[in-house]
Design a protein that fits this description.
339 residues, two-stranded antiparallel ribbon, 10-stranded mixed sheet, binds S-adenosylmethionine, 12 strands, Rossmann fold, N-methyltransferase activity, DNA_methylase_N4/N6, DNA binding, alpha/beta, transferase, single chain, methyltransferase
Length: 339
């Protein structure tokens, strides 16, 4: 279906009757005070992304739920699968859609962390600093069950398993950025290993030739960015806005288009707006979606139709042609700019 030639009402009806519709609970769209657009879809990412047009977003950035690390408190959340393979397959369903909706020269920054295989045969300890981890105490997770083919207490290596699965599906892995979370909390139960201070941010591209504004890169592949402790919407796994800002700036022109399929407390939305980009975010948590929606209303951004929002993100930024990151404008060392 061509979403752009469809009226908002028809589109709503189409989504309501589409086979994949049970995944979408609601959506809202705003034109911001700086005349950009922000869209929010409440629902399951794999389904919600299917309603977005092809070849659109300059940059996607996200942090999906990690494997059995938190409980977001609702059915249908990712991260609670029976096996690592199923978890990765579920992520791939979402990321295939990210790839389809990404501009042919677009890039995808994926922040993902690891999980330990405990194999203890009983629930794990609790983390007093983080209520969303306390389900460990009573719930026996698959990573607590014995019988895996790796030694107990092993790191599973999920980030790289995901990266390899992405390569198999045609993504080009261009960088495995280390996000040094300089002020990371200590891990109270880790008495016999270093506490984890870094996470990966993989930089994938849809094709080998893509846009990238090197002039905006403030560090090479180790990014020293503290965690923000503000706990927006009580979300304790939120991105720091600086991390999002960097990805947005290297991956999109001013006025360009940003996507976050697991937007959580809305960092990508608020950072995109603050940096003059258009943005669409998806999340399945009613609490986070309510929080983002109220914050956008409180900032007095105005409602627009979903159809208008789609038209805006389908139109390239006015800055696209001249943007230094546009691959056409890359300067080869020692050579003038190519056509
Ligand atoms: C690590 S958090 C993202 C945090 C976000 N980067 C921020 O800055 O707040 C992962 C998010 O994925 C959401 N989520 C889990 N399963 C989902 C699904 N099937 N579809 C959409 N969102 C989902 C959770 O509600 C949670 O907000």
């Amino acid at each position: 279906m061509d979403l752009l030639s469809t009226s908002a009402e028809t589109l709503d009806a189409a989504i309501a009757t589409a086979p994949s519709s049970p995944g979408i609970i609601g959506r809202s769209s705003f034109v911001t005070n700086s005349h950009h657009v922000a869209g929010l879809i409440h629902g399951d990412s794999a389904t919600a992304l299917k309603t977005l047009p092809n070849d659109t977003f300059n940059v996607a950035i996200t942090s999906p739920p990690y494997f059995w690390v938190r409980d977001y408190g609702y059915d249908g959340q990712l991260g609670h699968e029976e096996s690592v393979e199923t978890y990765i397959n579920k992520l791939m369903e979402v990321f295939d859609e990210v790839k389809r909706t990404l501009h042919p020269e677009g890039m995808f920054f994926l922040n993902i962390g690891d999980t330990y295989y405990s194999g203890n045969g009983q629930p794990h300890g609790s983390d007093p600093k983080c209520s969303s981890r306390n389900f460990f105490r009573t719930k026996m997770r698959p990573v607590d069950a014995s019988g895996w083919d790796i030694p107990k207490k092993s790191m599973i290596g999920i980030p790289w398993k995901v990266a390899f699965a992405m390569q198999e599906r045609g993504w080009t892995l261009r960088s495995a950025i280390i996000w040094n979370r300089c002020n990371a909390f200590v891990e109270p139960t880790a008495r016999d290993r270093p506490h984890r201070q870094y996470e990966h941010v993989f930089m994938f591209t849809k094709s080998r030739f893509y846009s990238f504004d090197r002039s905006k890169l403030v560090e090479e592949d180790v990014w020293n960015i503290p965690i923000e402790r503000s706990r927006r919407a009580k979300h304790n796994a939120a991105f720091p806005s600086e991390l999002v800002r960097r990805c947005i700036e290297v991956g999109s022109p001013p006025g360009g288009h940003v996507l976050d399929p697991f937007v959580g407390s809305g960092t990508s939305i608020f950072t995109a707006i603050a940096n003059d980009r258009n943005v669409v975010g998806v999340d399945m948590s009613p609490d986070y979606v309510d929080y983002i929606q109220s914050a956008l209303e409180a900032d007095r951004h105005k409602d627009i139709s979903w159809e208008n929002l789609l038209q805006r993100v389908k139109t390239p930024s006015a800055a696209w042609e001249l943007w230094e990151g546009n691959k056409k404008n890359f300067r080869k060392p020692g050579k003038p700019k190519t056509e």
